[in-house]
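Record passed on here:
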Amino acid sequence: MSQDQPPRRSSHVEMPVAYAAVGASKDPDVVKYPPEGTTPYEEELRLGSGQDRFLIASSLLMTWGAQRGSGVRVTDIVRGTGSEYVGPSFTGDGAPEAAGDVEEQFGPDGEPYIVAGTTAVLHAEGQEPRSVLVVYTVDEERRVGFAWGTGDEAGAVGEQLFVIEHRADDTVWAVARGFVAAPKNGLLGLRGRADVRTALDAVKRGIAALAPGAQPAPDLGPSAGEGAVAVEAAAEPAAAPEPATEPAAEPATEPAATAAAAPEPAAAPEPEPAAAHEPEPAAEPAREAAPAGDEPADTTTGPTHQRRPSKRA
């Protein structure tokens, strides 16, 4: 019997992943009928409603927003060509659809959308870095997303699909679906179950990060540290009121100047002793007593006093 390997299709591409059922997460029935030895899951979260919310959430998801928003660093991104593996696509009656051309899309900041074949390394707090491969993407009128497969056995292995859905009732949902298993080279029992729980918790944080106004998970060390720095930075502007008090002090000196100027008008009342001139008429009665003397003080009254002696004669 020949020892040669069986021939492969010309379209075959080696998939550097640590599990066998590549692309299985695309089928909703994977939750009911998962690959043997795996734990299936499906999580969803309502993000809002309307076309705008759908577009915003889709753009965020397709530029690693679910990972970065949950405190996971994404490094060593090697962009694929979009043709390594796109997964099977079917029409409503179950007939397979022909693969279409991959349209290049970009997020608001110019970052290109994730495409099939892209590889990256994920760094979560307290865990070993994990290498992943994007095995397929979803680009439909009302559904956008991607799925990755684990490329190592540093933790739970399996496949995860993240998708944004704009449903018939106009609501927008973030959906995560897939399957995970303990690594083959890991310890069975407690360690294996812990790895699976860690992977499922990461999925929940990922879709929560796509919600409007979502913040990084509070239980992540680096995220909490960054938040503390942000709070301290916010406290610095509070020192800005100090310069505000300086201009406030300037007007305070102006009233002091006016207060100093106020005494000057207060000195003006000193001329009011002009009222002291009023006592001068009081001196006039003193002149009336003058007739008792020999010489009159007022020349105008003199002739009157001169007529009186003539009467005595």
Observations:
- The helical segments are 51-61, 65-69, 190-208, 221-235, 241-261, 263-267, 279-288, 302-312.
- The two ends are 189 Å apart (CA to CA).
- Residues 47 and 213 are 10 Å apart (CA to CA).
